[in-house]
Amino acid sequence: MGDIIPDFTHETLAFGRGALRVAGVDEVGRGPLAGPVTACAVRLDPDRIPQGLRDSKVLTRERREVLFIEIIAVAEISVAHASVEEIDELNILRASHLAMERAVAGLGADHALIDGNMLPRGLGCGATAIIGGDAICLSIAAASIIAKVTRDRIMVDLAQQHPGYGWEANAGYPTKAHLDALQNLGVTPWHRRSFKPVHNILYQGNSVTC
Predict the structure, then answer these.
(1) pTM surpassing 0.70?
(2) Helix, strand, coil % in the chain, rounded to nearest 5
(3) Whether the Cβ atoms of residue 50 and residue 71 lie closer than 8 Å to each other
(4) Which member of 1, 2, 55, 72 has the greatest number of CB atoms within 10 A?
C-alpha cells in the first residue's frame, strides 16, 4: 500500500469529458464509537500539487499535519460533517454520504471523484466511484488527509471535555482503553448510541454523563 503513488489520471479523464471543477472526496470516521463523521472535498490546482500526497492511513501524524498546511495553501477545500445524532438516526453509511454531499456542495464541484464503491445519492453533480481512491487518486488522497487531520483535532478537543476515554489518541475508535472507559465512566453525549458497544452499555443501566 505504501508503495502505491497516486496520480492525476482520474481528474484528467473527468476534464476530458467536459468537467471544469473536479473534486476528490473522502470521509473519515465510520468506525469510531464517538464523534462525528467528517468528509472533505478538494479541488487541486494541477500546477501546484503538493509533493508526497498519499492515502492518509499510510502517513504519520506529523507528515499529515505538514501536508494539511500545504494542501490548504494551494487548493480549494470544503469540509463537512454529519453529527452523532444524524449517524444514529440515519445509519453510519447514509450519514457518511450526507457529509460527502455537504462537502461537495460547499465546493461547488461539477464532478466528484468519490473514494469507495458507492456514490452518495444527493451529490447534485456528476461523480465517479473509485475503489481505493485515496491510494491512487491525488485529489482523493488530499481529501483523505484534510478529513483525517480535521476529525482528529475535533476528537482532541472533545477529549479535553470528556477525559478518560483516550479520544486524543484513539479518535473515538473502539480500543481496549476506550471500551474499558465506557464500562467505568458511562456514555457521553458524543457516543453513537446505535453502535453495539454503546447500545449495550446503555442497556446495562449505566448512567449517561454530561
Answers:
(1) yes
(2) 45, 20, 35
(3) yes
(4) 55
